[in-house]
Amino acid sequence: MLETAAASSPRAAAAAAAAGAAAAAASASAAVSSPRRGGGAGHHHRRWAPVPYRACLVALWLVGFALVFLWQSTSMGRVRLYTRPPMPKRAAEASMGQWVASPPVYDLREFGAVGNGRTVNTAAFEAAVAAIDERGGGRLTVPAGRWLTAPFNLTSRMTLFLAAGAEILGIQLMRSSNIIISNITLRDSPFWTLHTYDCKNVTISETTILAPIAGAPNTDGIDPDSCENVVIKNCYISVGDDGIAIKSGWDQYGIAYGRPSANIIIQNVVIRSMVSAGVSIGSEMSGGVSDVLVENVHVWDSRRGVRIKTAPGRGAYVSNIAYRNISLENVRVGIVIKTDYNEHPDEGFDPKAVPIIENISYTSIHGHRVRVPVRIQGSAEIPVKNVTFHDMSVGIVDRKNHVFQCSFVQGQVIGYVFPVPCKNLDQYNERRELVKQSTFQNISDIDYSF
Fold first, then answer.
1. I want to staple 300 with a disulfide (CB 3.0 to 4.6 A). Which of 223, 306, 329, 425 is the partner?
2. How confident is the model at residue 85 (pLDDT cuts 50, 70, 90)?
């Protein structure tokens, strides 16, 4: 009798099968006892009988099965079976001959619009947007002409396409997401040119913004206001105020609304602002501004290069701001942090709501014909913390003292920085080894006379 235990693994099961096959083969070839002719009645002589043909086939089949089972069990972990994935639903529908509709395309004139620069076309824009919304998305083509309109709402999955020679007189985006603005020219706005308010996932690229460079206050170029995940790249801006200004609400109103501007990238932009700054943060930043990268930006013929401006009453924070590869040409003040920008919407602000300014870095800052390369004006109530300068060389117009100005600033200089940095900052070599520690972090060295 052959006794086997339950196999605890594939390998054990294979061994049991092999043992069973061997036992079957042994049984098939068992000796058969028969009396020998002529032998005595009490004496028998054993001999091996021929193995039956069918029994041999059974034995070979069982041995082969056991070997195959053993091979599969030991190689299963190394062999992957590749099967064709299920066909996507859309492809399956197409293969069955079902037609998938393409987004509709509308012409603004279909809704009664007139592009003469005098007719108000707000109703036409609204009707076109409603038609696109009803179809679940589509494109609205604005043909050549001057299309006057009051503000109107867009809808999801919509493309607003401006043909060559088309001008929309007025644009602002509010509480929207997944926006792409590209290959357009915006000019002569009476106020902020392109204002995105409380928006997410915004890309602005290959855009030209033009406004008079003098006598046109508040004609900012691009103002992301309480926005997240914004990319501004490959743009040219020449305006009468800040080229780009990141905002997030003003004093008590911005604090109450509580929408920060965060995760913003500004790349490959050329800016001119003869009366203001190339790139500003604030002064309306009461919802907070953080995680901003400004790189590969050229500022020319401007009053200031890059600037952070705030004041008591703003509250919130400006933190984790990185400026990298900034070039300055004919700029009055290159780098500015100002903490007494005392403009308020009304008397209801809280002067004890002071902002936090920290973790600001300037790397690869170069330029020529710059009057004051650095002016960082912290205060006892709003100190500027953890500022880093690394690889800076700015040619100055006048060989005067106080061209690297600081007050109430804590931070460090790494490697070569020209002009000579203020005494408020620790000095490190390129290996990040401390060379000289500052003992004058609260010294005031601000001179507005030049």
1. 329
2. very low
